Amino acid sequence: MTELEGHIVTANGVVEGCLQFNETIVSLNEIASSDQRIILPGMVDCHIHGGGGGDVMDGLSGIRSLGRFHAKFGLTGFLATTVTADNASIEHVLDAATEVMDHRKPSDARCLGVHLEGPYLSNGKLGAQPPCTRLVEPMEAEAWFQRGCVKVMTYAPEQDPDNVLPEIARAHGVKLQIGHSGCGYHKAYDLFGRGCGVTHLFNAMSGTHHRNPGVASAALLTAEYAEIISDGIHVTEPAFQLARGQIPNLYSVTDSTSAAGMPDGEYQLGIHKVFKKNEAVTLRDGTMAGSAATADHIIKTLRRFGLDWVEIGLMTSTRPANWLGLNKIGQIRPGALSDLITYRDGELESVWIEGTKIF
Q1: Residues 123 and 188 in one domain
Q2: Which of 71, 221, 273, 331 is 20 to 30 A from 260 via CA?
Q3: What is the pLDDT of residues 270-284, one digit of tens each?
Q4: Exposed/middle/buried for 186, CB within 10 Å: 0-12, 13-18, 19+?
Q5: Contact, 44 vs 330, CB < 8 A?
Q6: Are residues 32 and 53 in the same domain?
Q7: pTM (2 d.p.)
Q8: What residues make up the domain containing 338?
């Protein structure tokens, strides 16, 4: 049995006390403690493409590289996120993710499934996505969902003219998110009202113009859950604070790529070459192409934006776990998995996955 003392961040507040755990949390006891350690649930990242030189589209090696690298910075669970690609490439990722889910290595963050970002995206809002988009093919989508590893899909509603994808996703327990879309306000408003989420709010979507509102406007008014890339680059602090005040279950993602943890230079994002320089990742023409952020970077950005530790725990762990319907992770309480990170004096001190210290 392991014990940690400090300020324990729960969904309901900070408890000064002692945490006892093995693979799962056994007890949380309030005690007077002078230890200034902050104990948080580990980050759950629903949108991450790579890290440490590995790209999810590489398959097994890329997903394992992602999990190994990012765990050292506070990531404990993630969805391996694709880019728009042909069917064979997507199947390759689904095969690899299933293998990683079934056989996690002790020092790696846990792969919770796959986030299919595409291929049903808008050609007009590709951002850094490869130009491999297409209209929704119901039999294709159903075959992917039937495999059981797909947990989230990002799509553009205009690529689903018969509006069949929401029902297919619902039948298989897959969460749909609107992203890389130029669809109109009213269509997005209706879909958010029926439970759709939002992919990297403000980026690669129709916006908030006062005479031509789009996806972002609808999200701010009616979305319950939304991703936001809290790296301090993709979204300015004022825009972040606007979203924070409007969307009840706003949560952070890294949208990290193979360039994370690597020196400035050229890296891979699907079939695209991307370029890292000064912590930004772009295509050759300067278009943003994911990030180089880690969980630790996200948490420090949120602190800089003025969030307290409780809200940081909610944004980086509890809310994304809730979005995925996972009640054994994302919070510190008896019975939950012991996926924990600790901070001391504002710096990452340790990372624990299922009770094993990996950093």
Answers
A1: yes
A2: 331
A3: 999 999 999 999 999
A4: exposed
A5: yes
A6: no
A7: 0.97
A8: 1-41+330-358
